[in-house]
Amino acid sequence: MSTNLTTCEWKKVFYEKMEVAKPADSWELIIDPNLKPNELAPGWKQYLEQHASGRFHCSWCWHTWQSPHVVILFHMHLDRTQRMGSVRMRVFKQLCYECGMARQEESSMLEENIESLVDNLISSLREQCYDEDGGQYRIHVASRPDSGPHRSEFCEACQEGIVHWKPSQKLLEEEATYTSGASKPMLQEASGYSFFSLRWCLFWASLCLLIVYLQVSLHGSVFL
């Protein structure tokens, strides 16, 4: 998926969902590669998506990689009198760690991922621009098995001082739930193994006592 197609998909999904969420207002989505975190004009709000999932393709060595730590920055503004709003958006890039070329690559995303990210954006818009309850945000949990630790030296967001790769408390709770659920069969297997081991120990101990008893009884009858 090319960058232009990804951009068009972002705008298509955003306009469709905003038409449903706020049909009385007119919103626009602008891609701004120079957007800076926490540098806001008066009246503007910020939303930072820290754990988006995207695929990167190196234009030099053709290496591709998946990342669950794509950072997307949004700046939002609503003119209530004109009933017009604007969202400026920047998707941070990553460097290829295979060839080491100093060319930052843009990510491509599946349509279903874009839809869930736009849902999060609209939730933030409701909260910050309309003073409404934005509802529940959709958490993007990294797919398992994990693709390895985040390499901040190749991440544009990290190089600009955005600390995002550490999992949130929600992600930690979900990971703990996943881990505990996976460990239950192992615990049950271990407890079953201990049970059978104990039973076999009792069996052999009883057999040994029986043999000793028979030997003592046999020797007693011989002496008599």
TrEMBL record:
GO CC annotations, alphabetized: cell surface; membrane
Key word Protein biosynthesis present: no
BP GO terms, sorted: detection of chemical stimulus involved in sensory perception of bitter taste; protein insertion into membrane; protein targeting to membrane
Cellular compartment(s): Membrane
TM annotation in the entry: 196-216
Record membrane topology: Single-pass membrane protein
Keywords, comma-separated and alphabetical: Membrane, Metal-binding, Receptor, Transmembrane, Transmembrane helix, Zinc, Zinc-finger
GO terms assigned for molecular function: olfactory receptor binding; zinc ion binding
Signal peptide (from-to): none
Domain 3CxxC-type: 51-161
Main subcellular location: membrane
Source superkingdom: Eukaryota
Name assigned to this protein: Receptor-transporting protein 2
Organism: Myotis davidii
